[in-house]
Design goal:
The structure holds two protein chains of two kinds. Chain A has two domains: 75 residues, Beta-grasp domain (Ubiquitin-like (UB roll), Roll); 67 residues, DNA polymerase, domain 1 (Orthogonal Bundle). By secondary structure, chain A is α+β, with helices and mostly antiparallel strands. In chain A, strand 3 and strand 4 form a beta hairpin. Helices cover 32% and strands 25% of the residues of chain B. Chain B has three domains: 47 residues, Uridine Diphospho-n-acetylenolpyruvylglucosamine Reductase, domain 2 (2-Layer Sandwich), CATH 3.30.43; 116 residues, Uridine Diphospho-n-acetylenolpyruvylglucosamine Reductase, domain 3 (2-Layer Sandwich); 108 residues, Enolase-like, domain 1. In chain B, a hairpin with a 6-residue loop joins strand 13 and strand 14. Chain B contains eleven helices and 14 strands. Chain B is an alpha+beta fold. Classes of the chains: A alpha+beta, B alpha+beta. At the A-B interface, strand 4 and helix 3 of A face helix 2 and helix 6 of B. The complex binds flavin-adenine dinucleotide (FAD) and FE2/S2 (inorganic) cluster (FES) (2 copies).
Chain lengths: 155, 289
């Protein structure tokens, strides 16, 4: 039953024997203990489980770990460099882009994917990009401001 | 929610995938983007014993210009479609509709072949490929691949005319005629963005401005995507003034056994079908000029 996979997560190669039915979200949280990736709805709707897979934002509750074999994954834990927060993380801090923080990992990762494709998004483009991510307490205004803050800092 | 256990196969060629499918038969499911299949497996509404992953089959992922039209590989994602210059040029309505599917995460994974094989009654692309007069190509391990005209592809709820052992390999879209306009209008579910109703229109005008040719695809309304034949007939040969469009759009739900569910009643879907048809026709006609 076991399937041998090698996945580069946040720059580090991990080789594990996993069941094919293991979801990428569970692989990250339970096998690699990277609990920055949250699981909310578990039904592909809320986006809090969003991670980058081979450079694209995906909902890790709807991807099998075996599908990431040979690939690269970036999670929230992979954004800070040399003890310095990523401009998106600073943005959520500066602009009060979170209250409870449950949706935040997914909001940051989907925005990370947006800024890679479109470094200078309009407000409309930001709102469109985060449409698959639900926030149930902050509201979206400050989240949009946080992404705008990051876009202005990223050169 | 965790899927039931299964064996996982990651072929790298169509031939290998077709062989695996022939071997495992009904126990197997092909996996493309996984954004219909994995949710079903998590709910255990699908419990395949073997999962054959097509994402490593690189020959299935392409967008090619083909005599003014397009040839698109089955595992080409919505994102690839929306960001393709070739699609924007040869079939803009396909890019428009693919960009309206769900959210960016789903568009990064979901594929055209998966959408057309799954035949979700609320899927967007089924309406669009009907309007574009596409055809679907398939392959089998015995070399019995077919080309299926789109008009005989969608046959029931979540059901296509695919045969056991067949893999969808690609979709061909013919070149649009001169003076053709296209549009897709959908009334989306607020949370998932699935189409409660979606209507795609492809309209060709003649030099006098009358409708020379028209194809209209409707999704979301009934158990599977269909063409709005009565609407098409009411437009053909006519000048597309407001009254003509309104009358034709009024027939868009005729012959569709509209679904009734938690999202919308059959009556409301009938209404939405007419409204989306009217908007799609207006937009397509205005773009044909
Ligand atoms: C939250 C959410 C929102 C969504 N919103 C929308 C929306 O707004 N509009 C919309 O249109 N869709 C929507 N979808 C569905 C999405 O578009 C799916 O990606 C699509 O329906 C299936 O494509 P897939 O590549 O993911 O296929 P998969 O899930 O991998 O496969 C689906 C089915 O098709 C079969 N299959 C796949 N590829 C082939 C092939 N090449 N040959 C033969 N059989 C094949 C599989 O065996 C399976 O039975 C949504 C999905 C989610 C999770
Ligand atoms: S937990 Fe994956 S989308 Fe909600
Ligand atoms: S910060 Fe609480 S759900 Fe978004």
């Amino acid at each position: 039953m076991g399937h041998n996979i090698t996945v580069t997560v946040n720059g580090t190669k991990h080789t594990s024997d996993v069941e094919p039915r293991l979801l990428l979200a569970h692989y990250l949280r339970d096998v690699l203990t990277l609990t920055g990736t949250h699981i909310g709805c578990d039904t592909s709707q809320c986006g809090t489980c969003t991670v980058m897979l081979n450079g694209m934002a995906v909902k890790s509750c709807t991807v099998l770990a075996v599908q990431a074999n040979g690939g690269e994954v970036t999670t929230l834990e992979g954004l800070a460099k040399d003890g310095k927060m990523h401009p998106l993380q600073d943005g959520f801090w500066e602009k009060h882009g979170l209250q409870c923080g449950f949706c935040t990992p997914g909001m940051i990762m989907v925005s990370y994917g947006l800024l890679r494709r479109n470094p200078k998004p309009t407000e409309e483009e930001i709102r469109h990009a985060i449409a698959g991510n639900f926030c149930r307490c902050t509201g979206y205004h400050n989240i949009v401001k946080a992404v705008q803050y990051a876009a202005s800092k990223l050169k | 929610m965790i899927p039931a256990a299964f064996e996982y196969y990651a072929p790298t060629t169509v031939a290998e995938a077709a062989k695996l499918l022939a071997k495992h038969g009904d126990d197997a499911k092909l996996l493309a983007g996984g954004h219909s299949l994995i949710p079903l497996m998590k709910l255990r509404l699908a419990q395949p014993k073997a999962v054959i992953d097509l994402r490593g089959v690189s020959e299935l992922s392409y967008i090619k210009e083909a005599s003014g039209g397009l040839s698109i590989g089955a595992t080409t994602t919505y994102y690839q479609i929306t960001s393709s210059r070739a699609v924007a040029k040869a079939a803009p309505v396909l890019a428009e509709a693919a960009g309206m599917v769900a959210d960016v995460q789903v568009r990064n994974m979901g594929t055209i072949g998966g959408s057309l094989s799954h035949a979700d009654p609320a899927g967007d692309l089924p309406a669009v490929v009907l309007a574009l007069n596409a055809s679907i190509s398939t392959a089998t391990s015995a070399g019995k691949g077919r080309t299926v005209p789109i008009d005989s592809w969608f046959v029931g709820l979540l059901t296509t005319s695919i045969k056991p052992g067949e893999i969808v390999t690609g979709v061909s879209i013919p070149a649009l005629a001169h003076m053709t306009g296209t549009a897709y209008e959908k009334f989306a579910n607020k949370a998932s963005r699935y189409a409660i109703v979606g209507v795609a229109a492809v309209i060709t005008l003649d030099t006098s401005g009358a409708c020379k040719d028209v194809r209209i695809g409707v999704t979301g309304a009934g158990p599977h995507a269909v063409r709005a034949a009565k609407t098409e007939a009411a437009l053909k040969g006519k000048k597309l003034d407001e009254a003509t469009i309104q009358k034709a759009a009024g027939a868009a739900a005729d012959g569709i056994d509209c679904l009734s569910d938690v999202h919308a009643s059959a009556e409301y879907r009938t209404h939405l079908t007419k409204v989306c048809a009217m908007r799609a026709i207006q937009k397509a006609a205005s773009r044909a000029k």
